[in-house]
Amino acid sequence: MSSFHHSSQSSLSREGSEPIVERMIFNNRLRVCLLFLLVSLFLTWQMVTGLRMDASFQKMVPLEHPFIQNMLRHMEEGGNSGNTIRIAVAPRDGDIFSAEYMELLKQINDEVFYLPGVDRGNLKSLWTPSVRWIEVTEEGFTGGTVIPDTYDGSRASLDQLRENILKSGQVGRIIANDFRSSIVSAPLFEKHPETGESLDYQHLSAQLEVLRSKYAAQGVDLHITGIAKIFGDLFEGVKAIVWFFIIALGVTSLLLFLYSRCLKSTFIPLLTSIIAVVWQMGLLATLGYGLDLYSVLVPFLVFAIGVSHGVQIINSISAETARGANSLTAARRTFRALYIPGMVALISDAIGFLTLLVIDIQVIQDLAITASVGVATIILTNLVLLPVLMSFITVSKRSVDHARKSQQQESRVWQVVAKLASPKVMPVSILIALLGFAAGAYKATDLKIGDLDPGAPEFHPDSRYNLDNLFINSHYATSADLFVTYLETQPEGCSRYPVMDAIDRYMWHMENVPGVQSALSLVTVSKQVIKGLNEGSLKWQSLSRNPYVLNNSVGNAAGLFNADCSSAPIILFLDDHKAETLERVVQATQAFAAINNTEEFQFVMASGNAGVEAAINEIIAQAQNKMLFWVYAVVSILCLITFRSVKAVLCIIIPLGLTSVLCQALMSYLGIGVKVATLPVIALGVGIGVDYGIYIYSRLESFMRQGMSLEEAYYATLKITGKAVTFTGVTLAIGVGTWIFSPLKFQADMGILLTFMFVWNMVGAIWLLPALARLLLVPRVGKELLVEA
Amino acid sequence: MPVAILSFVLLSVAILSAESVYALSSKPPVDRPAVQSIKAANSLLLDVTRTDGGVRLVSVGERGHIVYSDDHGVSWQQASVPTMQMLTAVHFPSETIGYAVGHDAIVLKTEDGGETWQQMYVDREATVPLLDVWFSDSLHGFAVGAYGYIIETVDGGKSWEFIDGRIANDDEFHYNAINDDGQGNLFLAGEAGILFRSSDAGQSWVTLESPYEGSWFGVSGGHGRVLVHGLRGNIYQSADLGETWQPLSSGTDQTLFGSTKLTDGSIALVGNSGAVLTGSGAELASGTNSGLSVSHRPDRMTLSALAPSSDGFIVVVGQGGAYRMTLEGSVLE
């Protein structure tokens, strides 16, 4: 293979004309190398010193969405942010009523107390004074700490503890329903009120792991949940990425060697591809971007794309050498032939990625920018530096012989594959494609928006975090899926009767929505307090119309209204965070608000993990079709510009469309929803996948122009590009395929889907494109054959 | 009870100012019909009764919920109710006619065995909850509530008369319970140990000397005995119409909110933290040993009332709705 698609038509391929760019580069080879070295050193330094792992919450949510805006507004007021670590301490044998357990629990309580970022005043466990029992007596209330003052670990004091726990109303909250574990609940400061320091999730999570292993050795298991732990585990999971990269690097090197049969030709494209990755990360650091959990995928893509373009260069150089050119001439000819078509291909990748900018979620936009920057660096490293470096070395004789042989020899494999362009095979292919479209589209109708698995969707269902989460969910009376609606009113208004009554009715309205387990707000507290003030009689567990009583009753509802009582969160506990559940909750809230919102007070959505997901789902549902439209529009236009033929566009785009539909069907089959992680997959897959079609089609067209029949032309095409296309497909698939083993579920999902997209786009280009060419480019022949059949 | 009076005054003033704004923004819950909900039988229910001479069980609770069951409490249907205010008590003097009372001093009546209800009385100004209701027949009955609120009707709820003047409750303590002993005597019990008896169908009331200073939440009578129960597991029994009382050892210090006499003369009580007490009639009659055995619902949800179902079990109501239980106090699924 000597060049990309444009070369045959391009004036650049003519010997003798040496464009300025080529002269500039190849007359100053050492200076070019030095410049690359300096830039690489600078960007390496930038990368090492400046590149952060960035898991900022705000980047993962659609900031313009009204739910998120409302949430951020209320979070600033310092209401209940819900950022709490919950540690269920479970003895391996027996229940919590043993002296040893209580002693260990006390030690754990004290250690958690001293963890950085813990709001010590609001720490809660059996050992904190805030956990009390209350009893109504003739004189009023009496109560005390759950652990009796006289506690000495004796059977009698443990029995007293059991009595107190039953009177405390904390069963299901701090104490498990089965009395076989109890919780240490530690609210966290996002920003420390004194030092102003932001919470270091990674550090906190690591310290919690230390606690976990320390106490596991002493016979109690810790089950830890909370947003901080999720972030901590995410950082931990991301570390596996390094191994994936090393594995991808190793496998790719091996393939590259098998392909080129030359150590130098293996090493140099790998080096330039790694330089591309380093430049990309250095540039990101320089531009002030970090790598987040999604964009860590991009270096893999950049590496794989770099290698696949490197292969074209190596191929061309081998071919030129085989024709008898020396190293420098072979490199210059290669550069001349490839730099424009290579640039077009890479720029079209980048533009494909940039269509992700239409999605109003910053991580996705950052992914678009990161990927575009990465692809841009490949233009320099693999289209410029690589040929320059290759001009210094001699390709091994084996490699040259290999290239020469494959130029001359007929290929059995490609002869068979070329039959795909034959009029007899065409109708079969088209029929299969139509069936594929139909089956895929049918299955894809089940495609769901959002996260479908219980627990933290970031992790696999059997991950440590999700097992801990399941433990707490099944032994305590609280759900992990929270949807928060805010009641907004004028200052000092939140405890007024009409407001409280509306909240009360909203809560019942929502508790009747399928998927809502229960609701909690200051009304809940108020009713409990009023009941308590009336000797615990359930007949008083109702809002009082007496403002004096009502005001007093919410005094203890800290965190359930803001400082000036102008807003109050209503927390809905949901069965799950499936999109349908969230939609029902949102719709029911909207219906209630439409009737009940007044000038005096309004119900607005939303926060809580489920509220945030509802907002993300809405954005994603809107963005999904918009993104598909843009990405297909952009690649279609690029193809149209390149080939000036609508038929060419159809030949290239239809296989991509089939892959996209099948990818959606696969998502539906695997139970992967459309979410932040999987939405970009189709744009990335199509942006990169279009290259295959372009390589093949441009060759095919040029051979047909030379007068070959379609089948001959396709055989010639395959002989030249077939191997490179399959190699590219395999390289890309390996680059992202390692992700399937990521401990982070969303990365594994991305890995599965991208691998599928890359492989199927390749298959589609090799298999379906010639059939479409037969159907569209040679219409009369096609018809005749159909009639015959 | 000075605090009660003070809050009464404050409340009246505040209500006048609040009401004007309130009327503009929304209807108060007392005037909104109850929402039909499949969760009604699992919401907070406060009283349960079996229709007089019938099988049907009727239970009332928060948000205007009235549910009825024709299969001994296995399944429940929600009645059509014109209020979503909390309902606290229900009584059926006949198989078809019944009365329910609740907050905002609302009184509801049904003539079809509890399926549809009409509002007979409401006192929006007082903001007083009625806490119990008792009818001697389908026309004559009493509704009692907080701050000494007591009203009587003789025409099936069409008109009501305050009868607080007949009772010496100057401190306006809450009346928590009104019931008869099956022999023509009425007992009225409430806050701070107040106890009254009427032997002339409520025309005049005698103040009884209470054996206990804490609040009573229930009174049950039958078989020649009357029994009161209340705070901290206190149960007292009298065989002489309340002139003298004997304590019964309850075996618990949980407040007991509801009680019922079973046909065989035994008794069952329920209360705080899911306490369920049952005792045989023979042992009770002996007066020496209460014979009460205590069990707790495993989930510790507080229970408010109970009624015997006609298939030999009991139906208890409270937090989490209605449950069928055995006489020994274990929950039936």
Summed up, what is this model?
With 789 residues, chain A is α+β, with helices and mostly antiparallel strands. Chain A has helices spanning 20-26, 29-50, 66-76, 99-113, 155-168, 201-216, 227-238, 240-260, 263-287, 297-322, 327-354, 362-390, 397-408, 412-418, 425-444, 464-475, 497-511, 522-533, 547-553, 579-596, 608-643, 646-670, 679-705, 710-737, 745-777, 779-788; strands at residues 84-91, 132-137, 140-145, 182-187, 220-225, 481-489, 516-520, 567-574, 601-607.
Describe this structure in words.
With 789 residues, chain A is of the alpha+beta class. Helices cover 62% and strands 8% of the residues of chain A. In chain A, the strands form three sheets. Chain A has a four-stranded antiparallel beta sheet with strand order 7-8-6-9. In chain A, strands 4-1-5 form a three-stranded antiparallel beta sheet. In chain A, strands 2-3 form a two-stranded antiparallel ribbon. In chain A, a hairpin with a 2-residue loop joins strand 2 and strand 3. The radius of gyration of chain A is 32 Å and the shape is elongated. With 333 residues, chain B is mostly beta strands. Chain B has a domain at 1-147. In chain B, the strands form seven sheets. Chain B has a four-stranded antiparallel beta sheet, with no helix packed on it. Chain B starts with a helix and ends with a strand. The interface between A and B is large, with 37 and 49 residues.
Helix-strand blueprint:
The complex is a heterodimer of chains A (789) and B (333).
Chain A: H1 20-26, H2 29-50, H3 66-76, E1 84-91, H4 99-113, E2 132-137, E3 140-145, H5 155-168, E4 182-187, H6 201-216, E5 220-225, H7 227-238, H8 240-260, H9 263-287, H10 297-322, H11 327-354, H12 362-390, H13 397-408, H14 412-418, H15 425-444, H16 464-475, E6 481-489, H17 497-511, E7 516-520, H18 522-533, H19 547-553, E8 567-574, H20 579-596, E9 601-607, H21 608-643, H22 646-670, H23 679-705, H24 710-737, H25 745-777, H26 779-788
Helix pairs in contact in A: 2-9, 2-12, 6-7, 8-9, 8-10, 8-24, 9-10, 9-12, 10-11, 10-12, 10-13, 10-24, 11-12, 11-21, 11-23, 14-24, 15-22, 15-25, 17-20, 18-19, 20-21, 21-22, 21-23, 22-23, 22-25, 23-24, 23-25, 24-25, 25-26
Chain B: H1 2-25, E1 45-50, E2 57-61, E3 66-69, E4 77-78, E5 87-91, E6 98-102, E7 106-110, E8 118-121, E9 130-135, E10 141-145, E11 150-153, E12 161-162, E13 175-180, E14 186-190, E15 195-198, E16 206-207, E17 216-222, E18 225-230, E19 235-238, E20 246-248, E21 256-261, E22 267-271, E23 275-279, H2 281-286, E24 292-296, E25 303-308, E26 314-318, E27 321-325, E28 331-332
Antiparallel strand pairs in B: 1-2, 2-3, 3-4, 5-6, 6-7, 7-8, 9-10, 10-11, 11-12, 13-14, 14-15, 15-16, 17-18, 18-19, 19-20, 21-22, 22-23, 23-24, 25-26, 26-27, 27-28
